[in-house]
Design goal:
The protein has 145 residues and is α/β, with parallel strands linked by helices. 39% of the residues lie in helices and 17% in strands. It has a single domain, classed as 3-Layer(aba) Sandwich (Rossmann fold). The protein contains 5 helices and 5 strands, in the order βαβαβαββαα.
């Protein structure tokens, strides 16, 4: 069974969930990566839709956190649609500056959408749910580092 058809997370061999952070603003993207690393997640990042697609083709992840506001004519919804189509088991979390309506008929219906400002604990809670990693497991990972 290929990674695209897998029905389980693609965590690194040591069990650390992999998260792809997609956003064109470098400072917020790096800040989120830092928080996720501190909490025991493995991270990768992309600044655009094409970069995100290349990163996912190179190495599938357990979840994608995508900013809806990307430059270049494509946005985080494009990343989410592509991910859902090619890696349907990959968790998705969308970040936005304002509420966005996603039709119930969309393949993205039900994908969590967090409107900024948002707390670290909210993002982490969603990612723990998406990756099946309980809070105490991430806290234990931080203690080991």
């Amino acid at each position: 069974m290929s990674a695209r058809q897998s029905s389980h997370p693609v965590s690194a061999p040591h069990g650390t969930p992999r998260i792809l952070v997609v956003g064109d603003a470098r400072a917020p993207r790096e800040a989120l990566e830092s928080v996720l690393s501190r909490e025991g997640f493995e991270t990768a990042s992309a600044a655009s839709v094409p970069e995100a697609i290349r990163a996912l083709e190179r190495q599938p992840v357990d979840a994608v956190v995508a900013d809806l506001s990307l430059n270049g004519g494509r946005d985080g919804l494009d990343v989410a649609r592509w991910t859902r189509r090619h890696f349907p088991e990959t968790g998705l979390l969308l970040l936005a500056d304002a509420m966005v309506w996603i039709p119930t008929s969309s393949p993205l219906a039900g994908v969590p959408l967090l409107v900024r400002p948002v707390t670290e604990s909210t993002v982490l809670g969603h990612l723990r749910d998406l990756t099946g990693r309980p809070a105490e497991e991430t806290e234990a990972a931080v203690v080991r580092h």
